[in-house]
Structure formats: structure tokens, C-alpha cells
Amino acid sequence: MNTIEIINKKKYGKELSYEEIEYIVNGYVNDSIPDYQISSWLMAVYFQGLNSDETSALTDLMVKSGETIDLSFLNTTVVDKHSTGGVGDKVSLIVAPITTSLGIPFAKMSGRGLGHTGGTVDKLESIKGFHTELPLQRFKDQVKELGIALVGQSGNLVPADKKIYALRDVTGTVDSIPLIASSIMSKKIASGADAIVLDIKVGNGAFMKTEEEAKKLAETMVAIGKKLNRETVAVLTNMDQPLGTEIGNGNEVLEAVKLLRDQEYSQDLYDVSIEIAAQMVFLAGKATTEEQARKLVEEVIQSGEAYEKFVTFIEAQDGKMDSIHEIEAKQSIDVTAEQAGYIASIETQQIGEAAMLLGAGRKTKDDQIDHQVGITFHVKTGDKLQTGAKLATIHTNMEDNDTVIKKIKDAITLSENPVQVKPSVIGIVN
Ligand code: URA
């Protein structure tokens, strides 16, 4: 086989065989094909796409490029969840104890945040003492014993994706649906999932800006799941505004606790969390209908069982529950509306970037984050405001906050007339 022939074949829109994709993936991982040829191949894929067989082959080969985690000793269906990333997304913290309470093991490897989006591992590290790096055996033992463990991605899982993703990042080839789909699905499969629920965020704070793109990504991932025998459901959820009220780390953990412990929540966060958890319960075969699954999920929140599981989980990973409280930044500053009106739109990515500027997120992979800063976002699209109403409160350790305040104000557009509000859960693809 020859790399140039394979590049040319894709360049002219022809279908690649499993063996040709294997030649490319393995050649890149073992350094026999250089960056510049893989860059060229990726650009050909970007323009010509991959069909369903090719996308599944790429996913399968990326899984096979490294270690995989075997959770078959649990003797039950392991359902994982994945979010494509958004602002204020603390859904994993909420659904993990819910599904565990319903007898579904939650054994998750999560990521860190980058840019305007947050990561579950960073949020958990705001809890004093909490360990996000556990030896694999301890991770497995904890899942067996308590049904729940959540750690950062480690080890040699999917090295092909690590290498290809880094190259995509610098060659303008990240935003390709088959490449995104295979990248995400390979990591879920390698980490031991039998079934997968995807939370595909749609809107101005998400990777996928339109419903059309999000649906295409969802269909591509569901098709990979079918081909590789991992039942997969995608839930399309709204990211045209921050999810819930808190954006940051410590404050997002507290928001999750308030939902589970006090049943105090913002409706959008509740609705998305219930739907994701219910889809996981349904896929695990713990309910005969989706409606029944939703009911089971709501019951374990109301009974306090899910909150008890959350405490068990945090303490098992050495976290101190009493360190979860209102965040303690040097100052809190209210950002207020300069005129009256209805909230017509919120540039969500700008809000995520404002939180990042405060130190709650990272501009580059190596930045340190400050767990005790963030934004409390007081408004939702469609809300009617008077002049001077609180839009947001920033919790900051910086002296000069003018840029952040301006960014938040500029991100919010008001209208004189009532506006139509999008649902939090837009649709399901299965
Ligand atoms: N997240 C991933 O893990 N991979 C992509 O390609 C894009 C987002």
C-alpha cells in the first residue's frame, strides 16, 4: 500500500477500505507516515467526508491503537455518557449518582476544560482532597464496590486519537463530522462502555451551532455505535444560553449539590439532567419505557438516594463534602441591565470566555485554573427585565474586571417584544 495513493483516492471522493484506513492510522501511530501526509489525508477527509463504513473503521482502528478498559467483570451493561461540551454543563455530576442509585455502574473517564467550555475533572478538583487520578485497579474496585467512580483520562487509551486530534488542531481539520464522531466514540468504546448516551449541545455556546449540524453528528455517532455493537442514543440539548445558573468550578459543584440535596434548581439544568439520566436507565434495561425511566430518575432525587450516593462517591475519592460551599473569591460584582426589555439572545461562548478570563477556565492546555472564581448567571432567554436588573454576578480575584463585565453585557441582546424560547431538550436521535 502507498500513502499517496490513499490520499489521492480520498481526494477524489472514493471509498477507502478497512485495510487502507488501517495503513494510515497504524502508520501515523508508529511514525512511519509523517505529519505532512496525514495532514493532507485529513484535509481530503474534511472536504470529501467519510461514509458510515469508513467512519466506523476509523473508530475501530483508533480503539485498537492502544489499551482498552475491560469492565466485563461487572456482569452488567455499562452505560457511559458524553457531552460535546458547553457552558455551565455540570450534568455528569448530577446523573452519575442518579444512575448509580438505580443499579447502573458509572465508570467514567472525563476530560478537562479548554477555552470557553468546562470539564468535569476540573469541577471535581474544586473539592478539597478529591483525587481525579486513581490507579486502574482502584478505579475498578471502587466501581465494583460502590457502583461509581470518575477519573481523568489517563493511560494509553486511544493514542491514535491523541496524535490525530493534536494534528487536526493545527491544520484546520477539527470541525469535520466524521472526524469528531470517530474521535469521541473511540474514547467511549476504549474506556469500556457497552452503551452510550450522548449529550449533543446545539447553539452559540457549542461546537455544533445549528440543529442541522448537531443532528448530522448525532446520526453519525449513532451509526458508529450500531456498527460496533454499542447501543447509542443522542440527545440534542440547547446551548444558546448557559446551562443552569453557575459557570465555573466550585460554584458548579454546589449547584449540582443543591439540585440533588435540596431539590433547588434551574429548570433547564433539571430537564437536561433528567433526560440524560433517563436515557441511560432505559438503555441499561432498567425501565420498559422512557417515561418509566424518567419517573425512576425523579424518584431517586426526591428520596435523597441520589444525594447519598453523591456523598459516598466524593468521600470514596477522598473529597471533603464540607469544602463544597459558596465560592470564596475576593469580590463579587453585579452586572446589571442598562435598559429594560426581554432577553432576545445570549452569546453563550462569550459568557464562557468571560468565565475563562476570570480564571475559571483555560486558554491553553497548560494554564492553571482558579476553582474559587466564576459567574452566577441570573437570567434566561425570554426573561423580562427592568433597568438595573441583575444579569450576572462575577466572583473574581482580579483587580480590573472591566473587560469581563463588558463581555457579559455585550453578550446579551434585549428586545422590546416578547421572544420565543427554545426548549432545553431539542430532540433525540436513536
Ligand atoms: N472532542 C473530541 O474528543 N474530539 C473531537 O474531535 C472534537 C471534540
From TrEMBL:
Q: Reaction catalysed?
A: 2'-deoxyuridine + phosphate = 2-deoxy-alpha-D-ribose 1-phosphate + uracil; thymidine + phosphate = 2-deoxy-alpha-D-ribose 1-phosphate + thymine; uridine + phosphate = alpha-D-ribose 1-phosphate + uracil
Coiled-coil annotation reads none
Q: Main role? A: Catalyzes phosphorolysis of the pyrimidine nucleosides uridine, thymidine and 2'-deoxyuridine with the formation of the corresponding pyrimidine base and ribose-1-phosphate.
Task: Check the record and name the Gene3D superfamilies matching this protein.
Answer: Nucleoside phosphorylase/phosphoribosyltransferase catalytic domain (3.40.1030.10), Pyrimidine nucleoside phosphorylase-like, C-terminal domain (3.90.1170.30), Transferase, Pyrimidine Nucleoside Phosphorylase, Chain C (1.20.970.10)
Q: How does it assemble?
A: Homodimer.
| Sequence similarity | Belongs to the thymidine/pyrimidine-nucleoside phosphorylase family.
- E.C. designation(s): 2.4.2.2
Q: Which PANTHER family match?
A: THYMIDINE PHOSPHORYLASE
This one is known as Pyrimidine-nucleoside phosphorylase
The alphabetized UniProt keywords are: Glycosyltransferase, Transferase
> Per the database record, which ranges form the Pyrimidine nucleoside phosphorylase C-terminal domain?
342-415
* Cofactor(s) needed by this chain: K(+)
Reply yes or no: does the keyword Nuclease apply: no
In terms of PROSITE patterns, this protein maps to: THYMID_PHOSPHORYLASE
Per UniProt, what is the name of the gene that codes for the protein in this document? pdp
Its domain of life reads Bacteria
